[in-house]
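Hi F.,

I've been meaning to write this up properly since the lab meeting, where we talked about keeping a consistent format for the predictions we share between groups. The idea is simple: the sequence comes first, exactly as it goes in, then the structure tokens exactly as they come out, then a line or two of notes. No screenshots and no reformatting. I'm using this chain as the first example so we have something concrete to point to.
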Amino acid sequence: MADRGASPLSLPDDWPDHPDPILALNRMGSFDWDLDTGTMQMDAQAREVFDVRPDEYDGRPESLGSRVPLDEARRLDAAVSRALKDGSENYGAYFRVRCRDGSLRWAHTQGHILRDEDGRPRRIIGIVRDATQELRDSAARREQAAQEDARRQQTNVVQLTTAALAHARTVQDVIDVLKDTHGLTHLGATSLVVGLVEAGRIRLVAEGPEGSFVPGTDITRIDEPYPMSEAVRTLSPRFIESPEEFAERYPKLWQGITGLNITSAAYLPLIVQARPIGALGLLYSDRRGFSAEERNILVALGSSISQSMQRAMFYEQEMDLAQGLQQAMLPRTIPSVPGADVAVRYRAASLGSVGRDIGGDWYDLIPLPGGRVGAVIGDVQGHDTHAAAVMGQLRIVLRAYAAEGHPPATVMARASVFLHELDTDRSATCLYAEADLSTGVLQMVRSGHIDPLVRRTDGSCHRVVVPGGLPLGLSAEFGRLDYPVGTMELDPGDTLLLYTDGLVEQPGADLDDGMATLSALVTTGPDDVRELADRLIDVAEERGGDDDVALLLLRRRVLDSPRCGGRFQQHVAPGDPEALIEARRMIRTAAVTWGAQDRADEVELVADEMITNVLMHTEGAAVVTLRVLTGRERRLRVEVEDSSSALPRRREAGESGVSGRGLLLIDMLTDVWGVEARGGGKCVWCEFVVAEEPGPAPPAEGCGPAAGSAGR
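Output, unedited:
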């Protein structure tokens, strides 16, 4: 072969006349080729390179024909001819020499061309040497370099696969990484299969590329004669080095993959803590056999995939547990509320490119006595099982405090104390709204939560600014349990929207912009609360985000026919006969005005009995409330609250007794009655079914959505 890049043969001025000893020391022979006569003189070392004796060489290059194969001679002549024609001073070439025993050796020659004044070549002097060992060493170096390159590539397989799997969170994520085109390229395989051990069987969870699935192998027993089963059963890899070996050892499987042109395969057990969790099969179409180092690399690859698969399985188990806990903590069903349409939605956060996470967002709807309903929206800090557990406890205690009859501010304050006493590092925001659907009065308290929205019947939507206190769990720590109450009126057809900040907050965006966007969506959204909730949650889904979204919509229904609702409330203090007289007068007036003229006497008598009972037996004030309830039938409800937790008791009055007949009187004159706990006190209530058509509007001081002037 020509070696045009070889070092030129430069002859210094002090080049000896007889350089043979110097060349011999370097195992080189010299030659002097007279181009005019065609003779070429060679020293003994040069003849030894060509393996010719002195009597076998007559000084002419043609006599070396028996030692230089024809193809090599042509190549060597071509190299010399090019150098002579293109004006080069030097040339070099590798060529093969056939020894007298028939073996071939490599030789290398370098020549220096001497030209006359006209540039015509006259003479070539040069050297020739045995290059067999040199090329053998070079080939060995190339082979070693190739092996090192292959080793680096194989090591990169593990590194690249491990790096790709680092972001995988679920089993499907792991499978997607392995099945991806780049994943197969990294692995160097034509196709792959992945199976997981489940209940003593192997379930195929991945196969690729498309069309490589073998029917009947989706679920196999561990004792079946398949390479994947053997790898799981023995905890050892199975290497198949040729198609013949594959067909002989696993004929049933081989029949299904003959169209894939498989030449070798490796089936690796996925082992975690000495327990098989599955197996990975890599099938190749461009290789036969596996070296010891390749086998070690593949075993290391299987170990890396095993760890990723175990991590993914643990993550899914934790997610299943957390999601089950969260679902258990959220209300299973939302109760039907007379006078309102309600819709709730929940969307889990999307953290990263894969998967869903859980959090502490929650909603709740609490039916309350007297046609009232409590609506709750809240958000516990964090996205884990602890946040879900805290959320569940908070939801339960809020429901309990509200059902006990505590006013909204007390409900929130007690919930904050409860969270503080849980000794957790989590805080929570919350908004509690208590709505009287018969009157539309809405009382709200807020603990660090985002303000609600209200959409009016004309489609307009605006933010309701609710005065607030500290988030739950912090107020007790800082000694501030004040939760001011905001009051507004919800007209028939109006919709209240409670939501968590995941619906409006986006990284890098202003909260007011998010609120404006949400208001615009609500304004243009459908009237039906369920359809509106779906639209809002769909928008949140499209946008993604790393926070949960909880949503509660409550729409006060429009009455089928116009009816006059009303509410009257008055505070009656002990030792104030004028207040008692005024309360009796207002009760009768309200009863007549609200269509209960036929039962006005009964209403006044029962209310008087209930108020008097409080003033006599509790030594405290009584708060009397009258309201009209509409539904299947029109009812007048009377409530009398006091600060005593002692419940009224039936007593035998006796023939001459002047007391003890109050409960009997109430039971006889009312259609239904009962007692409810209200915070530290109680409420005795009763209802009267009244006529359908109401009378004229009641007096100004006893009417309206909020408490009457006497009760303020």
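Notes:
The longest strand covers residues 104-115.
The first helix runs from residue 20 to 25.

If this format works for you, I'll send the rest the same way.

G.
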